[in-house]
Amino acid sequence: MRAPAAKGQSSYVMAVKGTYRMTSDFGPRGDIGIKGASRDHRGVDYATPVGTKLYAPESGRIIKAGKATGYGQAIYIQGDSGRRWEFGHLSPGFTVKTGQRIEAGQLLGRTGDTGLGNAHLHVTIRRNGVAVNPQQDAIWMGHKLK
């Protein structure tokens, strides 16, 4: 199953459909009341209901599909653009596996409530090994950047 490409785009698609409230921003944060939660948040969290479909934002290779410390069930993608995508707190039962080649828009799995915290989707994007603010690198939402 493939999600439709964003209007006027062929390289990137939206990772999730719909609009969701951001519950934790990128960067330093205070104590959020969850034991083990990082005070230096290297991604953003969105309040997605359990079972929301998650799609590959770009073509690439699955480098991890399984349990990840703090994230619960997670999927990491090495994208063809060089970006590394990390999606955490997913439901078990992925449609992909580690090492698999994937295409933009391919269904990866569904959001969940595994790991630290309650139901939400965690998104980290890394470029050259460094976490960048997903709000500023909006490709994952289907917007092609320069």
Please characterize this protein's 3D structure:
This protein is 0% helix and 36% strand. With 146 residues, the chain is an all-beta fold. The protein has a single domain, classed as Glucose Permease (Domain IIA) (Distorted Sandwich). The strands form 3 sheets. Strands 1, 4, 6, 7, 8, 9, 11 and 12 form an 8-stranded antiparallel beta sheet that branches. The protein is globular. It starts with 21 loop residues before the first strand and ends in a 14-residue tail after the last strand. Residues 1-10 and 142-146 have low confidence and may be disordered. GO terms for molecular function: metalloendopeptidase activity. This is M23ase beta-sheet core domain-containing protein. Residues 40-134 form the M23ase beta-sheet core domain.
Question: What is the fold named in CATH at topology level?
Answer: Glucose Permease (Domain IIA)
CATH class annotation: Mainly Beta
Listing every helix as H and every strand as E from the N terminus to the C terminus, the arrangement reads EEEEEEEEEEEE
Q: Indicate the structural class.
A: mainly beta
Largest sheet: 8 strands, antiparallel
Distance, first to last CA: 28 Å
Mean pLDDT over all positions = 79
What fraction, in percent, of the residue positions are helical? Answer: under 10%
- What fraction of residues sit in β-strands? 35-45%
